[in-house]
Design a protein that fits this description.
Structural class: alpha+beta
Radius of gyration: 34 Å
Helix content: 40-55%
Strand content: 5-15%
Shape: elongated
Strand order of the largest sheet: 4-3-2-1-5
Order of helices and strands: HHHHEEEEHHHEHHHH
Distance between the termini: 92 Å
Oligomer: single chain
Amino acid sequence: MKPKIDLRYRPRTYFRPQKLETYLLSKVKGAVLRKKLRALFDEGRHAEVRQLVGDLAFSASDRKALESIHPMYMGGNYLPDAEGGEVEIARISIRSTTFDVTSVYARTEDGTIHYRVVDEYGGNTLHGPSETQTTEPMTLGEIAEFFMTAWPLISLLEMNFEDDVESALGFFSADSDFYPDLDRLCGQRVRKHFRKRKADAARTLKGQQMTSPEDPFSVHPSRGKPSTKGLKYASVEELKALGIPLEPVLIISLSPALSSKRSPGK
């Protein structure tokens, strides 16, 4: 059983000295190439690492040629470049046709940490506040909330998978060198949202099934018309006794029951 996710976990800093492999990986925007580099590092295949690092300096034409082999090689390549002193602290990749990547960059200035969420479409896929700042690194809960508010992962999954939570979970992955449980937390929040959505839909359906058809004589809030259900209509004789002048049109309008009768003397 995996340990409970600690939402209060906070890394000491984002700007510590890094191992060479971590530094190199942070400089690779392409999701496929980053994954390949990580595998080579883990397997100790350093000669191939050197070869691949040399290949990372693709020209624009070389990159286009690679992308023509399969759109997956586009993933991450169109993220904006990190500014001076910026590091990528988290990313979410989706298994779309072009393997889109969205990232969080951070930099420090005058003791304040500045964050920005970036995508590969000039910010067009972002829907919430995409920049913020703190005086110390965010907790795991805070970075997940900031990231998933700026870039609506759950809405994206809903549009593509409706109630298929397992397919939704397989459509994305979250990675961070600073928050090891980020992927687990994102998955947990997706599951929770889909469960709630399913429960809400079930309650709505049950409510529709239990609601009887509207009584045509009941009070309707948009009409503001009082109910006539249960009222007893006065007879013609009773109306005459009250001194109410009776015209044929009045009798007809008082009650459907009287409308079929002829008025007296006719």
